[in-house]
Amino acid sequence: MTTQPDHGAALIPRPEHNPEAVRVALARIAPHRLAELEQHKENALAAAIRSGKIGHLTHWLDWWMREVEIERRPDFFTRRNDALATIHRTTGKDALGFRPAMDELSAIEAEAAQAVNG
User: Fold this and answer.
1) Which of 4, 3, 8 is nearest to 77 (CA)?
2) Distance between alpha carbon 48 and the CA centroid of its chain, in Å?
3) How far is it, in rounded angstroms, from Cα 82 to Cα 44?
4) Are 6 and 14 in contact, with CB atoms under 8 Å apart?
5) Could you tell me how far CA 112 lies from the centroid of its own chain?
6) DSSP-based three-state secondary structure for 3
7) What's the rounded Cα separation, in Å, for the pair 43 and 89?
8) pTM score
């Protein structure tokens, strides 16, 4: 785990950018998501084997680094849950509140990606 600065009171330090560190971090803060991580990894590995391109695996790692960043930071986690709740309450893409919630969700993901990628 690194000791890189972050914004807000993180539950755990940001993990190193490697699969094992991400798995360990997720096990500490969101163990209920470990099966999802493993299934996503198996899918990425199968796609990499089929295509002969490692990009599937790097995308997997980047995605889970971002997910861990959101899970470990209460500010991101709360914002994402609020946005998702709004999205799920709406009756469709044209419903009031849907677009602002989607924009907020995109912003959270971009901020998390920026935090882990510098």
Assistant:
1) 8
2) 21
3) 29
4) yes
5) 7
6) coil
7) 31
8) 0.87
Task: Give the type of residue at 118.
Answer: G
Q: At what angle do helices 19-29 and 34-51 cross, to 10 degrees?
A: 160
- Indicate the length of the chain as a whole number: 118
| pLDDT, tens digit only, all 118 positions of the chain | 444 444 558 999 999 999 999 999 999 999 999 999 999 999 999 999 999 999 999 999 999 999 999 999 999 999 999 999 999 998 888 888 899 999 999 999 999 999 999 8
User: By C-alpha distance, which of 53, 67, 60 is closest to 19?
Assistant: 60
Residues 63 and 57: their CA atoms lie apart, in Å, by: 10
The DSSP line for 19-50 is: HHHHHHHHHHH-GGGHHHHHHHHHHHHHHHHH
Tokens at 8, concatenated? 């807000």
Q: How far apart are CA 54 and CA 48, in angstroms?
A: 6
Nearest to 31 by CA among 58, 47, 11, 8: 11
Rounded CA gap, 83 and 101, in Å? 5
